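dumping this here so i dont lose it
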């Protein structure tokens, strides 16, 4: 670790460790990018790839993100954008959970979906995408459906859980599992022009309040549609809440429901 740090320190330029130096150190030492970036951040070095983070997130905070672990349950519309944003932020470990493969109807809104990847597992495509964005972020692929039986395997060791599901029973199972394990859960959902998001801290019944009386298994988005812009906005709100939780800052949506109307560009918050 000390050797890595010295290599990185010597390679600084204008107070930053250039990406090219990371590549050179990886080639010279055989170390992985996760190890390299951990050594840099623990030593107080600023990495070029996070240069635009540093006015918002300091080195200590970037290290917290690097050491953080987030389970993204669902890798479709919401989950794909979440994985993209969290990898770019520098989250150290992402657990990507989804049993499905891409199909043509996903192309209108799912950032991970491409024509070339139709028929391929969503979690596999997610892992490849992350490697192309940030090879210091580890992706654990779980090509399984989240349910009570798989919960402990999926959520073991994570810091934050992201709800990117489209099944109401699965959302309720996820909320129950997160509560049992003492994990914060960041929820997002879309319905046509509308978005909702909340953060359920351990002990909260927010998800049960929202969905406990539902009479259908699918969300209202099956009736209202899923335009391309809606999951991008919802996932960005979730990513901001997840970042605050990993940084040890208050989650603004804890105990509150944010509702956005993107057609009228109005926003309200309601207590939960």
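and the seq i came up w/
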């Amino acid at each position: 670790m000390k050797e890595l740090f010295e290599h990185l320190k010597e390679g600084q330029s204008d107070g930053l460790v250039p990406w090219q130096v990371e590549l050179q150190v990886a080639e010279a030492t055989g170390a992985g990018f996760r190890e390299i970036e951990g050594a840099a951040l623990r030593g107080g070095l600023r990495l070029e790839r996070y240069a635009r983070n540093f006015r918002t997130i300091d080195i200590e905070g970037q290290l917290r993100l690097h050491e953080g672990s987030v389970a993204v349950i669902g890798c479709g519309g919401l989950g794909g954008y979440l994985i993209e944003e969290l990898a770019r932020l520098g989250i150290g470990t992402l657990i990507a959970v989804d049993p499905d493969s891409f199909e043509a109807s996903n192309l209108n809104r799912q950032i991970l979906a491409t024509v070339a990847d139709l028929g391929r597992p969503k979690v596999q495509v997610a892992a490849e995408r992350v490697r192309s964005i940030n090879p210091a972020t580890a992706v654990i692929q779980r090509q399984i459906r989240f349910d009570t039986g798989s919960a402990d395997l999926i959520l073991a060791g994570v810091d934050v859980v992201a709800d990117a599901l489209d099944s109401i029973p699965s959302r309720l199972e996820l909320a129950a599992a997160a509560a049992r394990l003492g994990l914060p859960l960041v929820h997002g959902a879309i319905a046509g022009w509308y978005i909702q998001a909340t953060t359920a801290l351990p002990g909260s019944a927010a998800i049960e309040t929202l969905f406990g009386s539902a009479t259908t298994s699918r969300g209202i988005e099956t009736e209202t549609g899923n335009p391309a812009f809606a999951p991008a906005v919802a996932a960005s709100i979730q990513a901001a809440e997840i970042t605050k939780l990993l940084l040890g800052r208050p989650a603004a949506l804890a105990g509150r429901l944010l509702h956005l109307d993107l057609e009228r560009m109005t926003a309200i918050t309601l207590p939960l």
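The mean pLDDT is 95.
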